[in-house]
């Protein structure tokens, strides 16, 4: 009797722990979940590319801010309506600017950002080449 | 060659450091003047005000984007639960007395009753207060934090946006000069 009780409680305990471990720490609420896993995956992937304007270094997928939840609902209802990722992004950029995109687009303003790695690589190359040439000479 | 190189190995980091220090000083200077990095530039400046048709906190009255036509108006998204909104409210009361600008409120995530009560206590500078229950109008305006204020000209074009409580600096330095220009 007590053995069975113990086993059942142990099972429940395991279930609770497993649920805790398995549960991803998303801010999603149940009504936001998409009807199929494929759509859910698409919504999640798109949300990770969109920055939350309130908590600025989190994506709307990770944020629990009210605005992030509102934007997730918009993204998900638009996916259900058959809009493409590009259309949904354009809708958001129209309202919040390119800031909502986690990856900054190539623009005149962001050009230095994109060229910086190339410039740094060039500097490193020049310095490195000079350094090794000197070592050979010595 | 070798001395030039030794010079370069000392000078380059120094130059790089000076450049970075100048960059940081410039950005910190901007932040000092209120331009903190959490303020986002609005893509809506220069564009027509989004279309909306909302119930107001007054029963039976509606507020639509058509109401903004033909006058300079200030649309303020605010809420009774927002502390910054309380801070800026006296400024709005003053602005509400002006004849060159009409004030419209937008209740953000705020039930009508609470909002009406809040305004009754503090004074109501708004001609009408729309109830943006679904927050869709706020989204169309690109609101990301309350309070946010939008100055709209007579043709219905958004001319200026301010995020956060209205300050005397902003009102006297930017808002009122533009209002005067738009009324000319």
Which features would summarize this protein structure in a list?
heterodimer; A: 138 residues; mainly alpha; 0% strand; B: 184 residues; alpha/beta; two-stranded antiparallel ribbon; 5 helices; 19% strand
Task: Give a description of the structure.
- The complex is a heterodimer of chains A (138) and B (184).
- By secondary structure, chain A is mainly α.
- Chain A is 63% helix and 0% strand.
- Chain A is flat, with a radius of gyration of 25 Å.
- Chain B has 184 residues and is of the alpha/beta class.
- Chain B contains five helices and seven strands, in the order αβββαβαβαββα.
- In chain B, β4 (102-108), α3 and β5 form a beta-alpha-beta unit.
- Chain B starts with a helix and ends with a helix.
- Classes of the chains: A mainly alpha (138), B alpha/beta (184).
Quick summary:
The complex is a heterodimer of chains A (138) and B (184). Chain A is an all-alpha fold.
Secondary structure elements and pairings:
The complex is a heterodimer of chains A (138) and B (184).
Chain A lengths: L1 H21 L14 H12 L17 H15 L4 H12 L14 H27 L1
Chain B lengths: L1 H31 L20 E3 L6 E3 L8 E6 L4 H14 L5 E7 L3 H11 L5 E5 L3 H6 L6 E5 L5 E6 L4 H16 L1
Parallel strand pairs in B: 3-4, 4-5
Antiparallel strand pairs in B: 1-2, 3-6, 6-7
Mean pLDDT over the residues of chain B: 91
Structural class assignment of chain A: mainly alpha
Q: Count of helices of chain B? A: 5
| Rg of chain B, Cα atoms, Å | 22 Å
Query: Distance between the terminal alpha carbons of chain B, to the nearest Å?
Result: 68 Å
Main beta sheet of chain A: strand number and arrangement? none
Oligomeric state of this protein: heterodimer
Helix content of chain B: 40-55%
Q: Main β-sheet of chain B: number of strands, strand sense, barrel status? A: 5 strands, mixed
Rg of chain A to the nearest angstrom?
25 Å
State the strand order across the main sheet of chain B: 5-4-3-6-7
Individual helix count of chain A: 5
The helix/strand series of chain A, from N terminus to C terminus, equals HHHHH
Work out the strand percent of chain A: under 5%
The stretches of 5 or more residues of chain B where confidence is low (pLDDT under 50) are none
Helix proportion of residues of chain A, in percent?
55-70%
Count of extended strands of chain B = 7
In angstroms, what separates the terminal alpha carbons of chain A? 86 Å
Assign an overall shape of chain A.
flat
Low-confidence stretches of chain A: none
Strand content of chain B: 15-25%
């Amino acid at each position: 009797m007590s053995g069975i009780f113990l086993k059942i409680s142990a099972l429940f305990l395991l279930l609770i722990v497993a649920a805790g471990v398995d549960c991803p720490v998303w801010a999603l609420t149940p009504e936001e979940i998409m009807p199929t896993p494929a759509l859910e995956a698409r919504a999640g992937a798109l949300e990770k590319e969109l920055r939350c304007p309130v908590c600025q270094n989190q994506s709307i997928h990770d944020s629990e801010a009210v605005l992030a939840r509102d934007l997730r609902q918009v993204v998900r209802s638009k996916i259900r309506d058959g809009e493409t990722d590009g259309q949904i992004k354009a809708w958001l950029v129209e309202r919040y600017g390119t800031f909502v995109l986690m990856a900054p687009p190539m623009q005149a303003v962001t050009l230095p950002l994109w060229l910086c790695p190339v410039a740094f690589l060039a500097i490193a190359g020049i310095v490195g080449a000079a350094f090794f040439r000197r070592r050979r000479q010595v | 060659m070798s001395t030039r190189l030794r010079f370069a190995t000392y000078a380059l980091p120094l130059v790089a450091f000076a450049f970075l220090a100048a960059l940081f000083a410039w950005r910190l200077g901007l932040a000092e003047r209120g331009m903190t990095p959490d303020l986002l530039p609005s893509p809506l400046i220069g564009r027509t005000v989004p279309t909306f048709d909302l119930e107001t906190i007054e029963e039976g009255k509606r507020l639509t984007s058509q109401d903004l036509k033909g006058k300079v108006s200030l649309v303020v998204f605010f809420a009774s639960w927002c502390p910054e909104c309380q801070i800026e409210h006296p400024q709005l009361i003053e602005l509400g007395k002006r004849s060159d600008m009409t004030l419209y409120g937008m209740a953000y995530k705020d039930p009508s009753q609470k909002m009406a009560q809040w305004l009754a206590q503090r004074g109501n500078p708004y001609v009408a207060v729309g109830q943006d229950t679904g927050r869709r109008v706020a989204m169309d305006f690109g609101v990301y934090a309350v309070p946010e204020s939008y100055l709209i000209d007579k043709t219905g074009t958004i001319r200026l946006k301010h995020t956060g409580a209205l300050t005397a600096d902003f009102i006297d330095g930017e808002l009122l000069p533009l209002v005067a220009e738009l009324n000319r």
